[in-house]
UniProtKB/TrEMBL annotation:
Residues 16-76 form the HTH tetR-type domain. The keyword Translocase does not apply. It comes from Lacrimispora defluvii. PANTHER family: ACREF/ENVCD OPERON REPRESSOR-RELATED, ACREF_ENVCD OPERON REPRESSOR-RELATED. This is TetR/AcrR family transcriptional regulator. The keyword tRNA-binding does not apply. Residues 39-58 bind DNA. Keywords: DNA-binding. It holds the Pfam family Tet_C_40. The lineage of its organism: Bacteria, Bacillati, Bacillota, Clostridia, Lachnospirales. It comes from the Bacteria.
Length: 208
C-alpha cells in the first residue's frame, strides 16, 4: 500500500463533494463485496464519475482505503472527546462510564460491521491496516487510562497502565462477541455482567 496522500486535494465545494462521494461509495462496496473484489472502475461507475475523475483524486484503490481508515479512526477520537467532557459526572456512578464506553464501542462496530470484518482479513496482508487497528485499540486504552488517572482515589488497582490494558481487552472481547457472534443470551445481559465485572475489578467498594 502506498502513501495515503491523494493525487489532488480539492478546495472547491463541488470537488470536495465529489471526492467524498467516491470515498463513501468505495466504503459501501468494500463492505458489500469485499476490498479485493471491488475495482476502481466499479467505484467510479456507482459514484457516477469518470474513472479519470477518480484517479484525479486517488492514485489507486489503496489510497481510498487509507483515507477511509483515517476517517474511521477519527470516530474513536470523537468518542474520547465527548466522554472526557463528562468525566466528572461519571464520578458519581463509575458504572455509567464503563457502560458508556462499552456501548460506544458496540455502536461504532455495529455501524461498520461488514467493514470491520473486512479489516480483520486485510490486517493480515496490509501492514497499514494492521497499524490503524492497533491505533484504534491504543485510543480506547488511552481513554481508559485517562479515566483511571482522573479517579485514582476511587480505585482498588494501583498499576493504572496495566489495568487499562486489562480493561480494554475485556471490553474488546465482549464487544466482538456481541457484534460478530450469535449469542445464546440477550446482549444486554452480557453487557451488564461485563460492566459489573470491570467495576468490581477497578473500584473500591467503599467508593460506591
Amino acid at each position: 500500500m502506498e502513501s495515503n496522500q491523494a493525487t489532488r486535494q480539492p478546495k472547491q465545494t463541488r470537488s470536495i463533494k465529489t471526492k467524498e462521494k467516491i470515498r463513501n461509495v468505495a466504503y459501501q462496496l468494500f463492505c458489500e463485496k469485499g476490498y479485493f473484489k471491488t475495482t476502481t472502475n466499479e467505484i467510479a461507475k456507482v459514484a457516477e464519475v469518470s474513472i479519470g475523475s477518480l484517479y484525479f483524486y486517488y492514485r489507486d484503490k489503496d489510497m481510498i482505503l487509507v483515507e477511509i481508515l483515517d476517517r474511521y479512526n477519527e470516530s474513536f477520537l470523537k468518542v474520547h472527546e465527548s466522554m472526557n467532557v463528562q468525566l466528572e459526572s461519571y464520578r458519581e456512578n463509575p458504572k455509567l462510564w464503563i457502560m458508556g464506553l462499552m456501548e460506544e464501542m458496540i455502536k461504532s462496530h455495529r455501524a461498520s460491521k461488514e467493514f470491520n470484518k473486512e479489516l480483520k482479513i486485510l490486517s493480515h496482508s496490509m501492514p497499514e491496516v494492521s497499524a490503524v487497528m492497533e491505533k484504534q485499540q491504543e485510543t480506547v486504552r488511552q481513554m481508559t487510562l485517562d479515566y483511571l488517572k482522573a479517579f485514582y482515589d476511587m480505585l482498588r488497582v494501583k498499576d493504572l497502565e496495566a489495568a487499562s490494558i486489562v480493561v480494554v481487552n475485556i471490553m474488546s472481547s465482549l464487544v466482538d462477541q456481541i457484534v460478530f457472534q450469535d449469542n445464546p443470551v440477550d446482549d444486554s445481559r452480557i453487557i451488564k455482567e461485563g460492566v459489573d465485572a470491570i467495576h468490581q475489578y477497578l473500584i473500591r467498594q467503599d467508593s460506591d
